[in-house]
Amino acid sequence: MKSAVTRLAAGGMALAMAFGMAACGTTGQAGDGGAASASAGDTGAVDRGFKIGLLLPESRTARYEKFDRPYITEHLAELCPKCQVVYGNAGDDPDRQRQQFDAMLNENVKVIILDPVDARAIAQSVSNARSQGVKVVAYDRLAHGPIDAYTSFDNIQVGRMQGQALLDALKAGGDPGRGPIVMINGSPSDPNADDFKKGVHSILNGQVIVGREYDTPGWSPERAGTEAAAAFAELGAERIIGVYAANDGMAGGVALAMRNAGVRKGTPLTGQDAELAAIQRILLGTQTMTVYKPIRPEAVNAAQLAVDLASGKPVTGSGSGSGTVDNGTSSSIPAQIIQPTVVTWDNIKDTVVKDGFWTVQEICAVDVRVACEAAGLT
Predict the structure, then answer these.
(1) In this structure, are 9 and 139 located in the same domain?
(2) Where do the segments described as Disordered lie (predicted)?
(3) With pLDDT > 90 as the criterion, what percentage of the chain qualifies?
(4) Sign of torsion, CA 96 100 101 103?
(5) Do both 211 and 143 map to the same domain?
(6) Residue 358 to residues 21, 75, 196, 204, 350: CA-CA distances in angstroms?
(7) What is the pTM of this model?
(8) Looking at the structure, do residues 197 and 305 belong to the same domain, yes or no?
């Protein structure tokens, strides 16, 4: 499997400095992180430069190529101008990701930033890295195996936020137990999906009637739409009072199924990731909420952890919890956890627009322009 090797250019360094100057000292400044600064202590490895692997899971979701990859490489350029990034995108294929990972070990990388397609399937490759002295930073999803650090969001809290937003919307329409809801969970191979499910059930259990619930392999929007359509047909579209979709991609498939089945307009529908199409659906009233997880601080944390680990510096955890996580291999993995934010019709301007995640021009396409005006976005 060929991997692109990119020397981090001075232009990338300048761009990173423009966007992330406040984060240059420590990850704690950047986004609830707490790793020691790579600029302190022994800088020999940074002065010489080294190879850093970056493995992202897929490109179907807009965030990875639009945000995660450039943010990580920009900050790496600032921290280690002579370093090289060896990049691979698995295209949602766990076998391909294992091949990419193993190829990076052969290219003598010192550290790999890994967002796994399948957290369990990659465990042997992570063990191989440990045996070769290569550090591994789990990014966004907690990989199995002997990883050295982890940065992500409070995923159980994400589920709680989704569950509370759905419950509030159901209560606004009357008794939340007056009819069934449908739950479309994420991929069973993604440990984050299990956390989201735990969080949402902690809010909804005993409050609602779950008519049907599905775990959706690969977070597939098409599969989510098929699952939702089957549930609507079995339960009766007219009886559905709400739908939990674990992310925005699947919410898109579910929204289409809701329309095709004749589910009542305005029926609450959740999401996550603040995708552009989801923000537009919120404005149009076909999705109730999403969860905004600011990617820049997560990317900054990952870059800092990678450089510090490769330089032999100690790293620490921060954010919610004890500062460590347990992935089944170790119960004391340093974890830098960032808090997410609920986005609804009322706060689009003060969240994703204010942060520059999406511009008003991107959001307010022709068919959304009237809704944008009503929300004060134009």
Answers:
(1) yes
(2) 313-332
(3) 84
(4) positive
(5) no
(6) 21, 20, 24, 31, 11
(7) 0.82
(8) no
